[in-house]
Structures are given as structure tokens and as C-alpha cells.
Amino acid sequence: MDHKRLSTGDILDFGILERTPPKSMCPVDAVLAEVDESQFDDDSLRAGLIAGGLEASMYYGVWKIWKDGDGFSGELMQYRVVTETLAKVSLADAVEHAYEWATNCYG
User: Fold this and answer.
1) Which of 54, 37, 52 is nearest to 103 (CA)?
2) Mean pLDDT by 10 residues, the chain (107 residues)
3) Rounded distance, CA 66 to CA 14, Å?
């Protein structure tokens, strides 16, 4: 994951705003709770995932993790590109990724 902070000029120069956002893998009927940026500890992330899933729009990216059968799937988008995905991982792995994505994307 590249954590380089782009300036507004960089974003315009790279044409990021002109890119078509990628299609999300998240089911349209998924009920996701918004992550509270001031409190993303393991307990609150675990509770949100068990309830159905989490989503967050943060400075360095937008991410979602949702229930997918017996596991959890997810995606991280940065600068309108999917940079990381999860496929049917355990609750423990989903919590770990949610924490990592939240802390890395928070800024």
C-alpha cells in the first residue's frame, strides 16, 4: 500500500478525478455501519463486522468489509483504484484488516 500523500495539484496532474470509479464488489443490499474515526478499536470494529459490515471514507482511501456467507470480504480503494481486497476471511482477519485500513487511511 502506497501511503504517499498527494497534494491537490498532484491529484489534478495525475488525472485521478477524471478516472471512472471502479465498480464495487460489495453487494447492493449489504447493510454497513460507518466507522467512527475517533474510535476504531478492536471491540468496536468486531461489533460492526458481526452486525453486517463496516465502511469508511477517510483521507487516504475508502474501504468496506461485509459479511459474505461464513466469512468476510472487503475492498480498499485509493485514488479511484482498488488497491487491496479480502475474500471470505475469518472474523479475526477481517478485524485486523479493518484496523489496518482505518489507521492507514485516517491520515
Assistant:
1) 37
2) 64 70 90 83 91 89 93 91 94 95 81
3) 31
At 40, list the grid cell: 476504531
Grid coordinates representing 51?
Answer: 452486525
CB 32 within 8 A of CB 94: no
Q: How is residue 84 annotated by DSSP?
A: E
SS3 of 16-83:
HHHCCCCCCCCCCCCCCEECCCCCCCHHHHHHHHHHCEEEEEECCEEEEEEEECCEEEEEEEECCEEE
pLDDT value of residue 63: 92
